[in-house]
Amino acid sequence: MAQAREAPAPFLALWTALVLLFLFAPLIVVVMFSFNTSEISTLPIRGLTLRWYERLFANETFHAALSNSIIVAAATVILATSLGVTAATGIHRYARRFRTTARSAAITPMMVPRLILSIALLSFFNLVQADLSLVTVIFGHVVIALPYVVLIVSARLVGFDASLEEAARDLGAGTFTVFREITLPLLKPAILASALISFTLSFDEVVVTFFTTGNENTLPMMIWSMLRFGITPEINAIATLTIIVSSALALTAEIAIRKAQGVPQRAAGG
User: Which CATH number do you get for residue 265?
Assistant: First the structure.
């Protein structure tokens, strides 16, 4: 019986390796071509160079697009995290009878296709006669990131020990003091994970940005415009930098999420 159960292990290992190769092979190819001396992305690689990165960092359009992306992502993090934490906390505390319905409504934008969501946002901006700019881009990105914040913080609140807040109130602490001194520190890992995911989603977003931006481009929009002339080494260099930043943020967010999930379990076990 034991041998029968262990028999599929090599097959599963091979299948897992093939799946990972399928997922990461395109990224590896992009990184390789970003260091290729040839201007044409073909194999074999003729040599290694940092020329494309030097040319990229000397590009003023890249600087402007990168600055806009950082500004939009930072504003998205602040707004989405603030709104998401308060929404998740409010749903958990005050919407007990309708908690599932309220939480489902809060994460609905996550399940709507980005194209449909983008058209809806553009229609809304036209209805209120708002000029398209980085402000409208930030608004659209907050709509995208907010459901993820609500979902992550809500998962942390499931194992939240409400007796800590009750003890603080018994000692005379007000509502704001309890939230600041008790709730926020316990939610810190989930808030950090939410902020990192919000930054990553905003920094990489193309579809919503395309529909809501004005004359100012973000980095994904710059890449999209450059693709009209073909895949150049500069695009591979931008993609490589984006992969590194996104991977680092995603890894940090995953660690924070695991920490957020582990704290309630340890508290319950203790």
Answer: 1.10.3720.10
